[in-house]
Amino acid sequence: MAYDEGVFEPALLPPTPDLPALTIRWEGLVVAIDATTLNTFARQLIRNVPEVREVLIDPEDGRLGIAVRVKKGIPVAFRGELRDMRVKDGFLGFAIADLRIFKRVPIPNWVVRKIVDMQPPGRAFFYPEDRIVVVDLNGILPPELSVQVKDVVCENGEMRLVFGPSQYRLDKLLADMGRDPFADE
């Protein structure tokens, strides 16, 4: 039986803004991160901050609660919430809301500034007037990845990131295909 070779040739349609070439696209992906994983990352972030004794992240009741025990002077615990989480161009940003000791006394910005300042240079930025923290994930996330976070849901002991239209560009991957990985040695 003969076959038509034209059937197996790829269609060469020009890329459009609505249909970019050389990308994998998705929408509606939900990524869940449990409290144990969130707390492990939080402990790593504060490991070089001697003024912070303990941190506990609690994704419940529609909020991402955070409790921190500070050992500057008298050990004190404070609680707050992270809101308005966004990922754009490799940066994670979020607002710190309702950061208080004993549910009444507001926490000064020096605590957040100290944690941010202990990160590698250029990794994190703190904007105290709006209490916004921005973390540079470009060293972690590949530059070919573009994601939109539509919603962050915190309940049942986990944080779920609901992604909107997102994509991964394949041009670098295709350029590297067939290249000898040991050729540079």
Q: How would you sum up this structure, described in words?
A:
- The protein has 185 residues and is mainly β.
- The protein has one domain (5-176).
- Helices cover 15% and strands 43% of the residues.
- The chain has 3 helices and 13 strands, in the order E-E-H-E-E-E-E-E-H-E-E-E-E-E-E-H.
- The protein has helices at residues 35-46, 109-117, 171-176, and strands at residues 23-26, 30-34, 52-60, 63-70, 76-88, 91-101, 105-106, 124-127, 132-136, 145-146, 149-155, 158-163, 166-169.
- Strands 3, 4, 5, 6, 7, 8 and 9 form a 7-stranded antiparallel β-sheet that branches. Strands 1-13-10 form a 3-stranded antiparallel β-sheet. A 3-stranded antiparallel β-sheet has the order 2-12-11.
- Strand 5 (76-88) and strand 6 form a beta hairpin.
- The longest helix has 12 residues, at 35-46.
- The radius of gyration is 22 Å and the shape is globular.
- The termini are far apart.
- The model has no long low-confidence stretch (mean pLDDT 80).
In short:
With 185 residues, the protein is mainly beta.
Strand content: 35-45%
Mean pLDDT across all amino acids: 80
- Extract low-pLDDT stretches: none
Our count of helices gives 3
The helix content is: 10-25%
**N/C terminus separation:** 50 Å
Tally of discrete structural domains: 1
Quaternary assembly: single chain
Largest sheet: 7 strands, antiparallel
Itemize the secondary structure elements and their pairings:
Blueprint: E1 23-26, E2 30-34, H1 35-46, E3 52-60, E4 63-70, E5 76-88, E6 91-101, E7 105-106, H2 109-117, E8 124-127, E9 132-136, E10 145-146, E11 149-155, E12 158-163, E13 166-169, H3 171-176
Antiparallel strand pairs: 1-13, 2-12, 3-4, 4-5, 5-6, 6-7, 6-9, 8-9, 10-13, 11-12
